[in-house]
Amino acid sequence: MANHPLLLMLPLVTSFLVVVNGFLAVAALEEGLSTTTRDTVMGQRHRGGRELDECQLSRLNSLEPTNRIQCEAGTIESWDPNEDEFRCAGVAVVRHIIEPNGLLLPSYTNAPQLIYIVEGKGIQGLVLPGCPETFQSSQQQSQYGGSRERGSAGKREEEFGERGTAGQRGGQLQDQHQKIRHFRQGDILAIPMGAAQWVYNDGDRPIVAIVLLDTTNNHNQLDVNPRRFYLAGNPEQEHPSQGERRRHGQQPFSRRGGQGGGEGTGCRNIFCGIDAEFIAEAFRVDMDLATKLQNENDNRNNIVKVEGRLQVLRPPRREQEMERGSRRETEWETESERHSRRGGRHGGRGYTEEADSSEGDQEENGVEETLCTMRLRENIADPRRADVYTQNVGRINTVNSHNLPILFWLQLSAEHGVLQRNAMMVPHWNMNAHSVIYVIRGQAKVQVVDNNGQAVFDEDLQEGRILVVPQSFAVVKRAQSEEFEWVSFKTSDNAMINAAAGRNSYIRALPDEVVANAYQISREEARRLKYNRKGTTVFRPEGQGRSRRAEA
Questions:
Q1: 275-296: string of b/e by CB count within 10 Å (b at 16+)?
Q2: pTM of the model
């Protein structure tokens, strides 16, 4: 029995299993390390591989636009990406102002974009490669040729409809295209790198949009210079190089474009550098139509005025819903469902047209949500969705990869805040991201402190200006107008802050004795430091503290 063959083989089998398991574990570890290393290297290729002294900032400045392009139906203003603050954060910023009935021509960029809609409403088309054309006209509309969507192009569609294409029904050419999305004031729009997009103002007031380009994102394999590639028209570059400025005789904050802005500069969309014969072959059209894609005599610039109204296939806008936010949510979502959809430190999921159009009430699990159906919009200005709120003081809304999953791939997030007069946001620092603050309205006293304890910014921050707060620099804000409103773009998909005061602060988490010895104060004074401020993030100064500030 002791010499049974199975018993004799047992140690050998055990050793073999141990070796195999060890080999698999090492292989998995090596693969994990390889993936981690590869991701780390890719992540550091730009953001970590810049000059070591780019964030050695002894002084920060609030920045204004330095370049302006006047277009037929709007204005484009850009900040100089070579400013030390932008070089440190690795971003570039543009402001688009699109007049009613204005169309921002199709384009794409070499870096992911995060767009905040300061004012207005409109529609956006985002072209994602490989995604289906899910918007199409009905067969009846195509048959009778009287659909409103075809508009002034209906006759041309009838002429080309006889040729027979993939979009043809009953001898007539159907209009079909990828999804069109509505947006409104307070929305954050996420745009992947290289994805072509266009924007149209179908409202009655201008659209004002702040666009952040993360030029040091690891998906940008070019240099850190922001580049926008236009697919139509004869546009100006939003961020002209010094050579282009000299070539155009441009001075700082010049006003170019308009009716004569393109004189003598030739064509500047991507088809201009391609031979017209190649274009004709690629699109299977005649040479006359191919040359029209190059728009050599188009002087309208980047934002053009649409003749009549832009007639495209899209679901009707629910005006009442757009104005009142997401009132429907309370009708079809229970409180527990809303809670289960929140994630991160400041969760909260906003109403989107994508959610409205989905069937059923199943929440996305990250596997079923593909790029083609992924939500790209979140409203962060709705006070009813505030993540931090103190009555008559202020509120803060955030969006990150937990409530807008595409931000995980873009590695960006955003914060929207409002402070009433004299209200403050506690001193804090961004743990894992740079913060690019744009003032929407009002003004505030802002102080920023570096690692040497020096105030690198101690000024009023006013409407329309940008302040870049580098990672780990301490910052505090106090509203000086009736209402101070801002949006902050952050260079992490799940940006976190650490407060210096308040209920959730670092000092509240320290033992009394540590506070007393660190600051050379009594134990009683240490307890007052820890517990006197009951609020969390936003508060209004009271008593003697407020009186001293008022006298100052």
A1: ebeebbeeeeeeeeebeebbbe
A2: 0.76
